[in-house]
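Lab meeting, action items carried over

1. Structure of the two-component assembly. Owner: GW. Status: complete.
Input record:
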Amino acid sequence: MTINPNAKMPESQQGTEVYNFDPLIVKYHYEIDYIHSYAQDSEFFKALGQKKLLGSKCKKCGYVYATPRAHCMMCGAETEWYELPKEGRIHSFTTCYFGSEEFLPETPFHLVLVEFDGVNSLFLGRLIGADTEDLYIGMPIRAKFRRNLKISPTDVYFVPTEEAGKKK
Amino acid sequence: MSGERRNVYMVSGGVTKFAKATPNMDFRLRVKKAFDYAMNDINADLSMIDGSVASYFSDHFQRQLMSGIMVQDYLGLTPKPSKRIEGGGATGGLAFQTGYEEIASGRMDTCVVYGFETMSHVNTWKGNEFIALASDTNFDYPVGGFYTGYYAMMAVRHMYEFGTTVEQLAQVSVKNHGNAIYNPYSQSPMKLTVEDVRNSPMVSYPLTRLDICTMSDGAAVAILASEEKAFELTDHPILIKGIGTGTDSMRLSDRPFGKVPLLPNEKESDYRNLKYPGVHSFRAGRTAAKEAYEMAGITDPLKEIDAVELHDAYTSSEIQTYEDLGLCKYGEGGQFVEEGKADINGEVAVNFSGGLLASGHPVGATGIMQAVFMFWQLQRSIKKHFGNDKLQLTNPKRGLIHSHAGTGTYVTVTVMEAVR
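Predicted assembly:
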């Protein structure tokens, strides 16, 4: 048993950053590591390392998704992996001049929704190798893959094909 | 789909002035201010409240879990029943409808729905990051990580499909910021021109700074009641005539290309070549409207609705939403605003309050704010609450409020009606 009326909290040299006094506003830092599993979508990320873009095809109704989804949104049945074509077209696009804090250093960057022949849905990606004024809906584009993987959907990105400049 | 429901009325409301930051009040005090305003307006006391619904979107902004119970506690509503409702940008609309359900089901006779958000504790770009976590973090966040970017792609496709112009987008901004000049609760009242909007900094092509709503601190409160209680509490309750909710895929890229779910005033031949919803339209918004119109008996929305408060987080989404709500046909949204049909003196006053663009968007409070402004509009008490009657319509009978999440993932539509 310890009863010590003279117990004293140790002092430290660490202070708190004060932004404002009235009302009192202080700053604190917060950081966290996540142990994130790609779970049933893992194959998609692994395939990027083999320069393959995997979508999903419903085993029952045949609906083809340009994104990984282990079960079909249309009928609820299981899907199987489906290799998407390397070439597609711009379905829509934008150029982001601002963004979330994490991506601010990368601005400006283009986002594209990609459509592929024979595929029922779209794929979201980054596009490089063209200026905003060069982009148009229907522009033919090609998937390229990073050599050093980040295990992120940005391991695939898109560039205009040779024909892209001619058609507009 | 409808079983037996009791009639539900809104009997009072309160809103704090939305601002970029209000560091002298925390979320509990802000809700308390809006709550007291609403309670005082009908001379109610705590004993008259059966329970509540808490409406807030993010646990990240405040880094506080269970903020809802902290408000319940602060307001003196413990130990009464309460729950938290969350659904992104549509949190407020969903919570309002949950309050409706508490009363329609017979569980409560009076229910307070309180909404709040404190977005000022982080910088704007960290705030955008938190909001972007409401997109698929495996596939969408790492690529775009920016909601304005997602909406910009929808706007580009809408322009391609229907010939909508950037000037038409800008006209939404001019209208809503202009309306807000007469709304003392609004965050960004401004007299603008189309040129001002186009010349403001480009955020995501084609959306400029003035095409986009801001982040806000704010709170809003709606008090709902059963028919019997409603007329005890006020002489001018407003009937909740219909509610509807729709959903769509989390990823924009997964949206199908099918057929338009038709409203009573549309025909299949109107949309022979339209692949729907794609990324140009919100199937969840159309689904919500359809359900709410069926319940409210609305067959010609433009003629039967006098005022709309809709979720204009972006100018482009206001135009997309005119079409989802059937105020015009798909493809006609750009012309709709250009021809002044959405003006305060137009065919239907859309976002007479200034909407999210100008009133502000403290996410969990936003859908409740719409209910409060619409309640005052239908009560014809705008002058009392705003201190001027510039935004008061002459004899508004029916109003619609519309709350919207994500890239159109959850959408609610609620129809409110003046009964005397």
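2. GW to write a short summary for the group page. Key points so far: Chain B is about 35% helix and 20% strand. The first helix of chain B runs from residue 27 to 41.
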